[in-house]
Design a protein that fits this description.
- Helix 1 packs parallel to helix 3 and helix 1 packs antiparallel against helix 4.
- This protein has a single domain, classed as Ferritin, core subunit, four-helix bundle (Ferritin).
- By secondary structure, the protein is mainly α.
- The relative contact order is 0.13.
- It is elongated and about 60 Å long.
- The chain is built from six helices and no strands.
C-alpha cells in the first residue's frame, strides 16, 4: 500500500469504509434475529436498509472519482463484529442479551462516526464537493442510529435488564440479579 498523498489516503479510507459496511450487512440480520425487544429488532432491520444505502453512496463516490473500493478488509470492523458474536454466543437472559447487543452496536456506530468524519474531512481538504455531501448524509445517519440506540437502551432495555427475574427463573439467573439489585441499592444510598 502506498500513502504518499491525501488522495491515496482518501482512497484507502473509502475502501476501509466499504469493507466495514459490507461486513455490517452480514452481521445486522443475526443481531436482529437474536434481539428479544421488538423495538431493538426493528432498529437493527432499519439500520440494515440504511447500511445498504450507505454502500451505494460509497460506490457513487468511487464511480465519480474513478476508484475501485473492493480489495481491502476493515480489520477494526472485523474485530468489533467478533466482539458482538461473543454477546450472541453467551448464555444470558433476553434483556441482558439485548443490552449487550446495543453495546456492541454502539461500538460499531462510534467507529463509523469517526471513520466517516475523517473521510469527510479529507474530502473537504481535497475539494470533492459531491463526496462531502454523500459522506455527511451517512455521518448524520450513523449519529442518528447511535442516538436511537441510546434512547432505546435507557428507556426500555436497561430497565428490563435490571429488573429482578421472574419467580419461575432459575436460581442461576436469580443470584446475579439479586446481587445487582443490592449493588444498585448501595450506590443509591
Amino acid at each position: 500500500m502506498k500513502l504518499n498523498s491525501l488522495n491515496e489516503l482518501f482512497h484507502d479510507q473509502l475502501k476501509d469504509l466499504y469493507s466495514a459496511e459490507s461486513q455490517i450487512t452480514r452481521a445486522l440480520p443475526k443481531m436482529a434475529k437474536n434481539a428479544s425487544s421488538p423495538a431493538l429488532k426493528s432498529a437493527f432491520q432499519t439500520h440494515l436498509e440504511e447500511t445498504k444505502g450507505q454502500i451505494e453512496r460509497l460506490q457513487k463516490i468511487g464511480e465519480v472519482l474513478g476508484l475501485k473500493l473492493s480489495g481491502k478488509k476493515c480489520k477494526a470492523m472485523e474485530g468489533l463484529i467478533e466482539e458482538g458474536k461473543e454477546v450472541l454466543e453467551a448464555e444470558s437472559v433476553a434483556p441482558v442479551r439485548d443490552a449487550g447487543l446495543i453495546a456492541a452496536a454502539q461500538r460499531v456506530e462510534h467507529y463509523e462516526i469517526s471513520a466517516y468524519g475523517t473521510a469527510r474531512a479529507l474530502a473537504e481538504q481535497l475539494g470533492y464537493k459531491q463526496a462531502i455531501t454523500l459522506l455527511q448524509k451517512t455521518l448524520d445517519e450513523e449519529s442518528a442510529t447511535d442516538e436511537k440506540l441510546t434512547q432505546l437502551s435507557l428507556k426500555e432495555v436497561l430497565p428490563l435488564a435490571s429488573a429482578p427475574p421472574a419467580a419461575d427463573a432459575s436460581e442461576k439467573e436469580a443470584k446475579p440479579a439479586a446481587k445487582a439489585a443490592k449493588t444498585r441499592k448501595k450506590v443509591a444510598e
